[in-house]
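Subject: design request, 331 residues
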């Protein structure tokens, strides 16, 4: 069992509505830069979000029963979570906060608060959907990781705005072309992120990669510019999502059933032990990024990068780690 380390709760009352806030002091440490309290309040202004509220829960890509709400400016997401996920997040909260401090290149989508719903960063950082060219949910797996069907028109699928997966990415993009500096930052960030997940026996996380053509007024320094010829105005937004899934008994059984069904012990299904999942995720990042040097492209996001070699990927860890167990919430 995971020991519950919830370090404080607070109740806030607004007219007839009471909101329970978990660990407010700790989450305040994450509110900086683009996430200052006054900016969050502006993003969640009720009048500005009336239209978005009517569409809440209809977001593409949500798992069964989840509530999703995207703020009107597309900067924040409110979503529901299971009690077990909440307790897991709060139990690792001190290390979670420390990880962001130690890893300035982290791609983990930041949870900004836990209430009756929890508030997290939208990796698009305010980009309207009209400027989104393609969105991919990538795990590094090749089994059941395809949305497009045989005969589908690629342009039509992209126009529909569907969240595509690994095999779709291979067919449509193949790779994204980025500067060596940007690739180095990605490798540094993802290596530390996956080490953090591995320590806490977390799996099932995805790299949400979005291809965008942002207007000049809303470009964000965290976006990565494409170095592919002919794509000078194309940028990429990358973030790691859905990372609160323990590799527990239920997941072990699910993996064994899929392996038996496939009649292949080495089948590349999504579910893997935490060390193998982390190694595959980092391998995927290398595979889908191609470093290209451009003498004409200037990039604010890489001005302050540390000039040191990208860390080497660790060898796959043999054997199974000691797995933390948690009783899933079935309510």
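Subject: RE: design request

Done. Sequence follows.
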């Amino acid at each position: 069992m995971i020991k519950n380390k919830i370090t404080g709760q607070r109740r806030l009352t607004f007219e007839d509505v009471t909101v329970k806030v978990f660990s407010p002091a700790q989450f305040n440490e994450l509110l900086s830069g683009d996430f200052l309290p006054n900016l969050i309040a502006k993003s969640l202004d009720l009048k500005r979000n009336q239209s978005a509220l009517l569409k809440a829960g209809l977001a593409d890509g949500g798992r069964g029963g989840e509530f999703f709400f995207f703020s009107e400016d597309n900067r924040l997401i409110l979503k529901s979570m299971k009690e077990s996920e909440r307790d897991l997040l709060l139990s690792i909260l001190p290390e979670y906060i420390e990880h962001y401090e130690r890893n300035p290149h982290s791609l983990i989508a930041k949870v900004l608060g836990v209430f009756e719903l929890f508030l997290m960063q939208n990796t698009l950082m305010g980009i309207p959907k009209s400027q989104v060219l393609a969105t991919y949910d990538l795990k590094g797996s090749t089994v059941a990781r395809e949305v497009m069907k045989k005969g589908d028109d690629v342009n039509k699928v992209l126009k529909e705005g569907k969240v595509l997966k690994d095999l779709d990415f291979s067919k449509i993009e193949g790779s994204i072309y980025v500067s060596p500096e940007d690739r180095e930052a990605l490798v540094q960030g993802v290596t530390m992120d996956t080490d953090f997940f591995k320590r806490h026996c977390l799996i099932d996380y995805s790299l949400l990669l979005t291809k965008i053509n942002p207007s000049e007024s809303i470009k964000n320094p965290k976006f990565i510019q494409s170095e592919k010829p002919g794509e000078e105005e194309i940028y990429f937004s990358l973030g790691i999502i859905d990372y609160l899934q323990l590799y527990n008994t239920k997941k072990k059984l699910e993996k064994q059933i899929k392996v038996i069904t496939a009649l292949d012990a080495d089948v590349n299904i999504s579910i893997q032990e935490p060390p193998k999942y982390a190694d595959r995720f980092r391998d995927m990042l290398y595979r889908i990024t191609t470093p290209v040097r451009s003498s004409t492209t200037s990039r604010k996001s890489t001005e302050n990068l540390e000039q040191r070699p990208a860390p080497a990927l660790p060898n796959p860890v043999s054997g199974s780690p000691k797995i933390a167990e948690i009783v899933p919430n079935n309510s």
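Residues 1-6, 12-16, 298-331 have pLDDT under 50 and may be disordered.
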